[in-house]
Amino acid sequence: MKIAVEKQTPVTALATLIAIVAASYTRYGTAPFENEEVSARVVPPLAEYLSAFGASHPVVSIIAAAIMTIAAGMIIGIMVSRFNIYPTQTFISMPLYGVVACGIFISRDALSAALSSLLAAMAVRYLVCGYLRERDLSSMLYSGLAVGTMLLVSPSGAAYAVAVMIAVFVLSFSARELLVLMTAAVFPPAVFCYAVWAFGGEFAAPAIRIREALISESGVATFGNDAVAALVLCGLTAFTFVSSAVLFQANRFMVSVKSRGILIYILLLSLLSAAMMFLPSSTPAALAVAAVPMSMIMPVVFIREGERLSAILYLSSAVVFVLHLLYY
Fold it and tell me: What is the pLDDT of residues 103-120, one digit of tens each?
């Protein structure tokens, strides 16, 4: 019997995503790895409050993080299907997102990581929506606000801030759209700075904290050093992503002009997000943020390759994921 993994129904994709998230967070709550038990030395200002809440209410924070991870996966799956980004409709990006976002490692600050990933999904969703509708300033506003809030939660938000400038060239936004997008991205950090100043603090303190969180060494191994299956899963993920990127470049004219522009932008965003994982300030939280654009590129290999190779790759990832859960 042939198995077309890219043609799974929305219900199947969502059920798989929920199963991956539930299993991953259960494993994290009961038997965390060494790099999942340590927080970064310096975190952005809003992440500090979320970290304190997580320390006081660990079970509630894990449940909230799992719910936000599922929500982010749903946003990604609905977006790529609704906007017809691929030549054929597929929801496989949902389980792929789950594997990268929480199936490999989960950050000690799980609440911040999950919120950052959800904000990243929302930022991309509204940006793509604005691009397809043209002159949709409200979408630019929401996307910019999501990026600006990310800067207060995760160092990986810097990749999305840079991507705002890249979008101008790749997606050809007008000056008005760019102004709205950049102003909205600056607004959340500016409001936070003002709030700190209003309560007697230094106005620039949050901005300085964001910069320090980006350049300071975290003291946490992003890819760990005590989980062989996690490294194998990282290798399979990297192989799937690189293969999809190559296949997209080779067959980029098989999709519409707008879909091609969106995928090119998401590919560049994926590279920026992946680069954040190799900075000294990186933690496993970077995986959750990078999972958003990477899961939108990875389905290409399942769409373009034959059913047999796609099934082998998908099942191999599933087997390694289960081994990662069981052998810790």
Answer: 999 998 999 999 999 999
